[in-house]
Fold these 4 entries.
Entry 1:
Amino acid sequence: MAERNEDNKTTPTATAPKKGDAGEREVKQRVDAENEQGFVGIEVDPTPNSAYTVAGVTAGEPTPETDPGAAKAVGSRRFDAALTGADPARV
């Protein structure tokens, strides 16, 4: 609501919040979360890179592509027999 002063001009009694404030807060929260995480999005494969090297493969380090336990740990359903229709031990 506005009040009239002695010159008969209106002056605002309260300031309205800026329209962009809620959106700016949401964007800032998301950017801050990404900065804290260190990257944008989700981590797709937490398997260490060493597991994909010749030394890692010959040492038998598990990867989601070759080991059902590692696949399950990263959320992969690669070895799920209900989805593939195949024997998980033979995939």
Entry 2:
Amino acid sequence: MTDTCAVCGENPSVIDRGMPHEWTEYLVEERDLTRPFHGYRIPVCADCDGSVDPIRKAYVGGGDPHGDDDATALLDALVLDNLTDESPDAP
């Protein structure tokens, strides 16, 4: 886990949240994120943890962020350099 929240980009992260595969695909297609070895996780600070509720909804609702304004707003605002690759072999 990185030391900095990927939502606000400022506070120290305290937890990391999984990201649905469809969200990774969205970030690769829409924000030119490099495809991960395995998958990405979103490090989150205590202040921002409540703002990642679209993640929980995505796992329940199938994950596709297209058409979900809350999910796309969160994805479009993430600090991509702060995402962590789930693979233990990631550079």
Entry 3:
Amino acid sequence: MKIRINHNSFLKSKRKLNFCPEHFTKTSIKADRDQMLWVFENTNNRFAVYSPEKATDEEKMDFLLAFENRLQLAFEDPQEAMLCELKWS
């Protein structure tokens, strides 16, 4: 009996990063609920949800500003970045 494990489901929590490493391909796509669901379902590699701007100390303390839609997506695989750009632009 062969058991097939969907590695995307198993490793879902380890694919999403909260910072953007230098080698990731950055996109101009804003990270909201629809885009995040699409990324989890249609990509295989790691991706990052990051803020392209440096937040001031006052902004870091403001809970509402932290969730204002300023987060963007970046991908480890440039092909996935291009696919995301084509889908959401």
Entry 4:
Amino acid sequence: MAIWIAAGLALAVALLSWLAARRLSRRLDALNQSYWELRYDYTRLRSQVARLDPEQPDETPEPAAPPPSVSFVPLASIKKKKLDQEEKLTQQEKTLGDKNLNGY
């Protein structure tokens, strides 16, 4: 009996979350549509102002795209760098070991 109650509650929670996701999806679509309409209107009005007053320079250039914060680093180069460092350490250990043995 408890299993049926738990299954019913899980079904109800799933249905409510699905409805909330649909509502948020519709809201996101409406916001996206509003954004593109505003952007279109802004560009259209800016061009109209430029035609009415051609002597006024365009003071608001389009912002440049920000540089990417993360660049691609191939895994092979990281492994190679690590192997090179390990080789240097082993060579240093060998030379230090040889020097210590020669000193005694």
